[in-house]
Amino acid sequence: QVQLVESGGGLVQPGGSLRLSCAASGSISSIYTMGWYRQAPGKQRELVAGITSGGSTNFSDSVKGRFTISRDNAKNTVYLQMNSLKPEDTAVYYCNAQNPYLATIKRGNYWGQGTQVTVSE
Questions:
Q1: Which distant-in-sequence residues (6+ apart) come within 8 Å of 17 by Cβ?
Q2: CA-CA 20 to 30 A from 104: which of 10, 33, 69, 87?
Q3: What band does 35 get if pLDDT is binned at 50, 70 and 90?
Q4: Cα-Cα-Cα-Cα dihedral of 19, 43, 52, 86, to 10°?
């Protein structure tokens, strides 16, 4: 099993920055693809950013140029640096870990509890 614990959420003004952290424990290894998702009230959960074991990253169009994702395999931690935040970034942000070798059989996928990010005056 893998446990994921997010931190770093909070209230920030438009244009501000936050850094989210996701600490992984349990049967986690550096092979896992890590990602950040978000879910706003009344909307479906969506991928914000992902990073593979090799360091390749991808971002949703809505956050490109504003957010960066990174990982520290020694600490089993993944980060989401969010800059130039907008009110539409308000959501619960979830950390995800996926074992790429088990994805096709829909196993090895884990979620954190989520952390609230609110962008408002």
A1: 81, 82, 83, 84, 85
A2: 69
A3: very high
A4: -30
Residues whose CB falls within 8 Å of the CB of residue 73, separated by 6 or more in sequence, listed in order:
30
Buried-state track 57-78, b at ≥16 Cβ within 10 A, e below 16: eebeeebeeebbbebebeebbb
> How far is residue 84's CA from residue 97's CA, in Å, rounded to a whole number?
26
Q: What is the DSSP string of 49-62?
A: EEE-TT--EEE-TT
pLDDT of 71 reads 96
Q: State the Cα angle at 33 between 30 and 36, rounded to 5°.
A: 120
Classify residue 111 as exposed, middle or buried by CB count within 10 Å of its CB (0-12, 13-18, 19+): middle
Count H helices and E strands in the chain, helices first: 0, 11
C-alpha span between 113 and 111 (Å, rounded): 7
